[in-house]
Design brief:
841 residues; alpha/beta; 5-stranded parallel beta sheet; 26 helices; elongated; Rossmann-like_a/b/a_fold; kinase; EC 2.7.13.3; histidine kinase; two-component regulatory system
Length: 841
């Protein structure tokens, strides 16, 4: 069956019109004769959205009973049975009600697509998994519901529903997004102009990256090598010297000329003709490019020019910045065009900027003899030197020839052979040695101009000359090979150090290794697959032709090995050595990941052990006092008998009663915190009217209007909660707020609704709690700023947080404007229960 197509409507924030646009598109398609059905739509009480949904076929929602609460959600089986041509599914990141086939709505959408149903869905940028931490930094709100990036990226069409930040705020102010009681809080918090502007930019940039990725895949599938200048990308080639800073700043200025321009810096480590880069200079330049908003890359290539051009093409670069050659004119004339000239010749439609710098045109130097002496270019240059230098040297020596110069003639030709071997390696040197021997015999050994030798000793001299020349060329060639191997090892070490640096800077170890390996070796794609087939990390293009090389990555802890799959080109021996080193680092990284998971488990056990120790401490200290008082009171009653006066008897009974009540409350708290820690808290969810629970908690505390101010929303729907646990949460939090509030101020209790969540805000104007100590507030047996043992065991907030989370809500501390602490109790709204069936708390 052909898989359905997915269209995602992406918004920067709630209220931009995603659901409205989805319904409009559904109506348009239905008018064109397409079979469109609403699988699930959340109108959030917006009349215009609800009106637009009228007239479209609707698949009835599924009803699920969870802990006594009736919840409704999308009926996947019903939609599959109805099998419309197009299904409208709102809120892709939504978490389904317990008991449904899938945990997340995007999994339901995937099932619809597998069934051949096209889906139009909506999602906000803050719900995309990889952007969660960025959104939290912008808005201060952590997103609980997310959808994996791969799900959205796999969509056939992603469309941004855009609305300017001010227009969205105007819609909010007009009551078109939230009800009136939520408008002021929303405008001053999540919907601030700066937040909305940043979220809008985030959505547009995410889509731009997705479009860029799709463009890259299209070019790869169709074999398009030329650059498409959809976005200005400037690649700066870093040679490894101090001039790199000049090149980077020039490249940054070029990239800044166009909106959305990107800066990429690349350093090529090679065994063929590339100077060894200065590590400290490269480290400084890496920091510089990151401070300029660019990215740093490193590749290994035999040919620097080709590696630069290939990298530029792989990132679809439009500009390439290269420094002018350090070599002077004489060296350029002797050794041919430099890297810049070659890059210009091979760059095609990529613009190349040759930038001058202080190190340009450096002093004359002989060719680098320790470079890659075995390249085709170097061997050809060696043969050329032998062919041209031999006749020139012969002409010079013949012009001054006499019987006394034979020794200097031999040494001159020996020098020529050494130079040829230094430049071109062993085979050009052997050729030069043989030709030099024949030339010496023909021009400088009597009889002249013949290859015959009159004196037999001269024959041995010529043979020894050729042998010595061959041995010298062999030694020089071995030295060149050793230098090449050392340079390769240096490049590999630099690459591994670069990967290690990425990990130390906070990048995830395994993805960093995979990404750098693919990039450095110029592979099309690399991925790490676990023994069970799970893809641990991947980078580059997916495997297309089925050909790849696999390297086993063993786990040091004895676990099943993973497989490193590489495709793009066949690896040579040196690249295989590098892959073996990467596999060793991957093995260590996987071990570290496994140990981290084990440490997390051990941390949980340590926390549990700490709680147990604290329980024992509490039993030995806090429980002893009321227990001792009760025992003493009962003992006094028993010992005195009828001799006690009525007043003393009444006082002893009151003491025993108070102590036993205190003891009962402490034991109840200890049992409750034990259940919370063990995860076995019994919760009976019901549809609860929040005002009733708030008033019951105030009655229990004995708090009146002089100490507590109420601002309860009369239209707040019931919440899904356990009324007994919710009352205990409110009592604990209110007791803390009243205790720490100044005498002249009142604690404020306010209720409101935000989407599918109801909030109870308990506001005091006390001294507050520093942000760094807020996590400690919820730890058992903690009394922040309170050392009086009569305050209890310090379990109130720990229990409150555990009870709230057990009911599916959250308990969050916030700063009170003007000073103090605000505790926000957020619980899900239970809208599915009819009003006449709502039980009173």
């Amino acid at each position: 069956m052909k898989r359905g197509k997915l269209r995602v409507l992406l918004g920067a924030a709630p209220g931009v019109g995603k659901t409205y646009e989805m319904l409009e598109e559904g109506r348009r398609l239905a008018e064109d004769g397409r079979d469109v059905a609403i699988a699930v739509v959340e109108t959030h009480g917006r009349a215009a959205t609800a009106a637009l949904a009228e007239g479209l076929p609707v698949v009835p929602r599924a009803t699920v009973s969870h802990r006594g609460v009736e919840l409704t959600d999308m009926d996947l089986e019903g939609v599959l049975a109805r099998h419309p041509e197009i299904a409208l599914v709102d809120e892709l990141a939504h978490t389904n009600a317990p008991g449904l086939p899938h945990h997340k709505r995007w999994q339901d959408v995937d099932a619809l697509l597998d069934a051949g149903i096209d889906v139009i869905t909506t999602v906000n940028v803050q719900h995309i998994e990889s952007l969660g931490d960025v959104v939290e930094k912008i808005t201060g709100v952590a997103q609980q519901e997310t959808v994996p990036d791969a799900v959205v990226r796999a969509a056939d069409q992603v469309e941004v529903i855009d609305l300017s930040p001010q227009s969205l705020r105007d819609r909010l102010s007009a009551g078109l997004v939230y009800p009136a009681e939520r408008i002021d809080a929303a405008l001053s918090n999540y919907f601030r102009l700066g937040n909305l502007t940043a979220l809008r930019e985030l959505a547009l940039l995410w889509l731009a990256d997705e479009v860029d990725s799709a463009l890259k895949s299209y070019r790869a599938e169709h074999g398009i090598e030329g650059a498409w200048q959809a976005r200005e990308r400037v690649v700066v080639a870093l040679p490894g010297g101090s001039e790199g800073e000049t090149l980077l700043r020039r490249g940054a200025r070029i990239a800044a000329r166009s909106a959305g321009g990107e800066l990429l810096a690349v350093h090529v480590s090679s065994q063929d003709g590339l100077r060894s880069g200065d590590p400290s200079a490269l480290a400084e330049q890496r920091r510089l490019v990151e401070s300029l908003g660019g990215t740093y890359h490193q590749v290994v290539g035999d040919d620097v020019s080709r590696a630069l051009v290939e990298f530029a093409r792989s990132v679809n670069a439009t500009q390439l910045v290269v420094g002018v050659s350090r070599r002077g004119r004489l060296m350029s004339a002797l050794t041919g065009p430099g890297i810049g000239a070659t890059v210009i010749r091979e760059s095609g439609d990529i613009d190349v900027h040759i930038v001058t710098h202080a190190a340009a045109g450096d002093r004359f130097r002989l060719p680098r003899m320790t470079g890659g002496a075995l390249s085709v270019k170097r061997r050809a240059l060696g043969f050329l030197l032998a062919i041209v230098g031999g006749p020139l040297l012969t002409w010079l020596l013949v012009s001054i020839r006499n019987e006394d110069t034979i020794t200097s003639d031999v040494l001159a030709y020996q020098l020529l052979v050494v130079l040829v071997s230094l430049v071109g390696g062993i085979w050009p040197a052997v050729f030069a040695a043989v030709m030099s021997g024949l030339t010496l015999n023909f021009f400088f050994v009597q009889p002249y101009y013949t290859v015959s030798v009159a004196d037999p000793r001269n024959v041995w001299a010529l043979i020894l000359y050729v042998v010595i020349a061959v041995l010298v060329s062999f030694i020089v060639d071995r030295a060149a090979r050793a230098a090449r191997a050392a340079r390769r090892a240096e490049a590999e070490a630099e690459l591994l150090a670069n990967v290690a640096g990425s990990v130390l800077r906070g990048e995830s170890a395994v993805p960093a290794l995979i990404s750098r390996t693919r990039e450095s070796l110029g592979l099309a794609g690399v991925r790490l697959v676990d023994a069970d087939g799970t893809v641990v990390a991947t980078d580059g293009e997916p495997l297309r032709d089925g050909r790849y090389e696999a390297v086993t990555v063993a786990r040091r802890n004895g676990g099943p090995p993973a497989m490193l799959e590489l495709h793009g080109h066949d690896l040579d021996a040196s690249e295989r050595r590098l892959i073996d080193a990467v596999a060793a680092q991957l093995s260590a990284a996987l071990e570290h990941s496994d140990l981290t998971a084990t440490a997390r488990t051990a941390g949980v056990l340590a926390e549990t052990d700490q709680v147990r120790s604290a329980l024992l401490s509490a039993v030995s200290h806090d429980l002893r006092r009321p227990l001792a008082a009760a025992v003493a009171a009962v003992g006094g009653l028993r010992a005195a008998g009828a001799n006690l006066s009525p007043e003393d008897r009444t006082e002893l009974i009151a003491t025993a009663d108070e102590s036993l009540a205190t003891l009962s409350a402490l034991v109840t708290d200890l049992l409750d915190v034990s259940r919370v820690q063990a995860g076995v808290l019994a919760v009976s969810l019901q549809s609860v009217d929040t005002p009733g629970v708030v008033l019951a908690a105030l009655d229990e505390l004995g708090a009146g209007p002089d100490g507590v101010e109420l601002a309860l929303d009369p239209d707040l729907p019931p919440v899904a909660a356990d009324p007994v646990l919710l009352q205990r949460v409110l009592v604990n939090v209110l007791a803390n707020a009243v205790r720490h509030a100044p005498a002249a101020s009142r604690v404020r209790v306010a209720t409101s609704r935000l989407g599918g969540t109801a909030e109870i805000r308990i506001v005091d104007h006390g001294s507050g709690v520093p942000p760094e100590r807020r996590d400690d507030m919820f730890a058992p047996f903690q009394r922040l700023g309170d050392t009086d043992n009569t305050a209890g065991l310090g379990l109130g907030l720990a229990l409150s947080k555990g009870f709230t989370e057990g009911m599916g809500g959250t308990l969050t501390p916030e700063d009170t404007p003007g000073g103090g602490l605000t505790m926000v109790i957020a619980l899900p709204v239970a809208e599915s229960v009819p009003a006449d069936e709502r039980p009173l708390a």
